[in-house]
Structure formats: C-alpha cells, structure tokens
C-alpha cells in the first residue's frame, strides 16, 4: 500500500513538473498588416538582452512571434520603412539603425512611431507595461494589443496615417526636399529648441508642456505619448498577459 502511494505521489510530482515546464510564458508578436514590407527593430534598454538580434524583415500580411524574456526586460520596438538592399548596402528611409538589417541593440533614426515596454515587473503581480509614443515623431500606424491579461489592459496606439495630414514644417521627405512624405517629425526634431525638446530648464513636469506640434499628434492619436512629460496614465500595467501583439497598419 505504501509503495503504491509513493508511486502515485511520484507520478503526480512528474505531471505537475511537466505542466510547469510546458506552461507557455509571455509571447511577443509583431504583425505587418501594411501593404508593403517593413523591417521591425527592437532595442533593449541599457543592460537588457537584445531580442531577435535586434531586427528582421517582415513581409506584408505576415507576423513573427517569439518568447519574451522570463525576467524583467524593458525596451522599444519600431518599424523601418522604405528599405532597400543594393550593391551590398542596406538602408531605410525611416528608422534606420546604422545600415544594418539586425540592429543588435542600436537605436533608430527619427522620425519613428515607438512601442515601449517594461515586462515582468511588480514582483508577484507580474505586470507588463506598454505604451505607444509619438515623442520622436511618426512613420507608420501602430497599436499594441494585449491578450488574456488581468487589470488595465487596453489596446493603445495610433491607427491614423499621420503622413497624409503632417504639417509642412514637420514633413520628412525622401529623397529630401522633393520626395514623398515618409515621416512626420516632432517639433523638437524640426526646430531643436530646449522648450520643444524638454531639455535643461524645460526638463520637468512643471516646465515641459504640450505645444502646437504635440497637440497635432495628440488630436490624431489620443492614446499615445506626445511629449516627454505627457500624462503617466497613458502607460498601462497589465497583469500576466499571455501575449503582447505589436500591429503595424490596420
């Protein structure tokens, strides 16, 4: 009798251990719903590991899923557009990271629409925070959609194609000057003043304020950050989501 009980307990332990081992963790999925190829890029914050070598190609109407780190990770995802590869030289009209397909931790040239993440924080609450930012301008519509999370887990982002309404002073064209509008610059990038860039004296919640240019972005896409000290309530804490889906174009 004792041996059968021990066998039952051992079997139960193996089954429980197997269940824990196969329990899927948080998945990150990048979706390209645009009618053109993009090159998503991923940059970790300082000291964090690089995911998926920092960048890859994603053809129209395809997606790529990969496991998120199991420990705390923070970083950003964006899309590079208008990319070409010729004579051994790779370059993108927007979001370029030093002429590489795999960014390997490098940041991207602005203007770009950014998704920013802080995964697995808050201890046992296992929170994943996410936001979409137009602080560095806009190059492509983007949303972040969580799946199966608990608590505050809204879909956020910018579905509008701001390229069609971008004020002339903020238009980023390629080729420069006469080419089509491929990006919409921030006021900071366009004019470089401390006030618009929230630098020096203006780098505080009291002095870094909305302006005409940030209000243009906010009107087009209310559920995005548009300047450095924008409302913290736009960063959402979602408990234990199974998947975070970054979708380009809709």
UniProtKB/TrEMBL annotation:
Gene3D superfamilies per the UniProt record, alphabetical: Thaumatin
Key words of the record: Signal
Record bears the keyword Repeat: no
Superkingdom assignment: Eukaryota
Signal peptide start-end: 1-21
Pfam families linked to this entry: Thaumatin
InterPro entries: Osmotin/thaumatin-like_sf, Thaumatin
PANTHER family cross-referenced by the UniProt entry: OS03G0233200 PROTEIN
Descriptive protein name: Osmotin-like protein
Taxonomic source organism: Hibiscus sabdariffa
Lineage of origin: Eukaryota, Viridiplantae, Streptophyta, Embryophyta, Tracheophyta
């Amino acid at each position: 009798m004792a041996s059968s009980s021990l066998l039952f307990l051992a079997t139960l332990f193996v089954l429980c251990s197997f269940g824990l081992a196969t329990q899927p963790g948080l998945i990150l999925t990048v979706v390209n719903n645009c009618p053109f190829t993009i090159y998503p890029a991923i940059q970790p914050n300082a000291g964090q590991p690089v995911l998926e070598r920092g960048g890859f190609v994603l053809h129209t109407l395809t997606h790529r899923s990969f496991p998120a780190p199991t420990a705390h990770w923070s970083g950003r995802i964006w899309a590079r557009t208008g990319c070409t590869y010729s004579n051994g030289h790779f370059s993108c009209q927007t979001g370029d990271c030093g002429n590489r397909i795999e960014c390997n931790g490098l940041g991207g040239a602005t203007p770009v629409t950014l998704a920013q993440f802080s995964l697995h924080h808050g201890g046992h609450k296992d929170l994943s925070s996410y936001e979409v930012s137009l602080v560095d301008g806009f190059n492509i519509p983007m949303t972040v959609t969580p799946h199966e999370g608990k608590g505050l887990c809204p879909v956020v982002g910018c579905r509008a194609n701001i390229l069609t309404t971008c004020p002339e002073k903020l238009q980023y064209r390629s080729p420069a000057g006469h080419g089509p509008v491929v990006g919409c610059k921030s006021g900071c990038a366009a004019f470089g003043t401390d006030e618009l860039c929230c630098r020096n004296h203006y780098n505080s919640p009291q002095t870094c304020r909305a302006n005409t240019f940030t209000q243009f972005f906010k009107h087009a896409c209310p559920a995005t950050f548009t300047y450095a000290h924008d409302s913290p309530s736009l960063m959402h804490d979602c408990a234990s989501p199974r998947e975070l889906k970054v979708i380009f174009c809709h």
